[in-house]
Structure formats: C-alpha cells, structure tokens
Amino acid sequence: MTLKFISTDKAPAAVGPYSQGVRAGNIIFTSGQLPIDL
Fold it and tell me: For the chain, what is the mean pLDDT?
C-alpha cells in the first residue's frame, strides 16, 4: 500500500515530527492541532 503524506504551509507547523495528514489507499488520516495564540 502506498502512503502519501499531506501537508500545507497555510497551517501552523507541528511541534514535533507529525504529519498533517496521510493517505493510505482510499483512507485519509488527519491529525488535530491544539489552539495556539499567534
């Protein structure tokens, strides 16, 4: 199964080695983000 990592520069950067999203076949896994004060 091929994994495709999904990211955008329009979202705050993760604090750690996390992906914003990963597509595995027909399934997309997304990660959440706690609110931050910019």
Answer: 85
